[in-house]
Design goal:
The protein is mainly alpha-helical and 282 residues long. The protein has helices spanning 21-27, 29-36, 80-106, 119-140, 147-161, 167-179, 226-237, 242-252, 255-271, 273-277, and strands at residues 46-48, 51-53, 58-59, 70-71. The protein has one domain (21-280). Helix 3 (80-106) packs across helix 9 (255-271). Mean pLDDT is 72; it is low at 164-237.
Length: 282
């Protein structure tokens, strides 16, 4: 997993070469963390096409399962909106393909896994390659920011220059929204953007299927005593509990949310298609 500058954020290595993509996914620690609710944090909601989400999403091709944390292309794109989404999704997804080529050119050792006698040695070598690559990225591109990071930096500068409606004002609004029963669960947007009330969502960073916080937590009946209310709320929301893991698994494997995510991304991209496609040839 990397960004458009091929900076590595997640690197899983150690599976036998005979395994297919789906088997590798099922053994990935990232997959198990998402399904169990350990990752991503659910307190960073963002709004995408008018729908608030809390689950990060990742770009993938059509071979992957229909999970709500995967943004896959339309299998049979017919409309201009769907074709535009598929074009941008494929262009951004190619960053990972480019990462493989960069690693193979820079580190010859990664092309010869048969030299490693144990899986542990293979993982240590892969981890070292990933660390060295990220060090090279920081050194070679000192002061360089990818387009999306640069846009976020400009937005922060504009907020700071805006005075009361600037960065500190946005933080205060986020805190107020977090304490409101009718507001989003967290404060800032998942991609470092504005609060969840903003209609602008990230493109390839994150996604979720969450929404506004309910008046009462799940599992609490109207009229319940306060002590039971607090107890059940802590049991449901506490990370690492069985109910938390079960709820996270249901959320992470909901195929209907996968379709809704793709439709929301399609509509969002269509509105800003000129700016989003410009770096990839217009």
């Amino acid at each position: 997993m990397c960004d458009e500058s091929t900076y590595i954020y997640h690197f899983y290595i150690g599976c036998a070469g005979s395994q297919n993509v789906i088997n590798v996914l099922r053994t990935s620690p990232l997959y198990h963390n998402i399904v169990s609710g350990a990752w991503p944090p659910r307190d960073k909601p963002f709004t995408l096409h008018g729908r608030t989400r809390t689950l990060l999403y990742y770009l993938s091709d059509g071979i992957y399962p229909r999970f709500p944390f995967f943004a896959t292309p339309h299998p049979q794109a017919m409309t201009r909106k769907q074709l535009t989404y598929n074009r941008l999704q494929k262009a951004v997804r190619k960053n990972v393909e480019r990462l493989y080529a960069v690693l193979a050119c820079r580190f010859n050792i990664i092309m010869r896994p048969a030299r490693f006698e144990t899986v542990g040695a293979l993982r240590r070598a892969g981890t070292a390659v990933a660390i060295l690559h990220n060090m090279n990225m920081r050194e070679d591109k000192n002061g360089y920011l990818a387009q999306r990071r640069m846009a976020a930096a400009h937005q922060i500068d504009a907020d700071v220059a805006g005075g009361e409606r600037g960065l500190l004002g946005a933080a205060a609004q986020n805190e107020a929204a977090a304490g409101d029963d009718q507001g989003p669960i967290g404060g800032a947007a998942a991609d470092g953007g504005a609060a969840a009330a903003n209609d602008q969502g990230p493109i390839d960073g994150a996604a979720a299927d969450g929404g506004a916080a309910a008046d009462a937590p799940a599992g609490v009946l109207p009229g319940a005593v306060p002590a039971m209310h607090v107890h059940v709320q802590g049991l449901v929301n506490a990370e690492g509990t069985l109910l938390h893991s079960l709820a996270a698994r249901v959320q992470a494997l909901d195929e209907n949310e996968h379709e809704m995510l793709r439709e929301d991304l399609t509509e969002h991209i269509w509105v800003d298609r000129r700016d989003l496609l410009q770096p990839y040839g217009g």
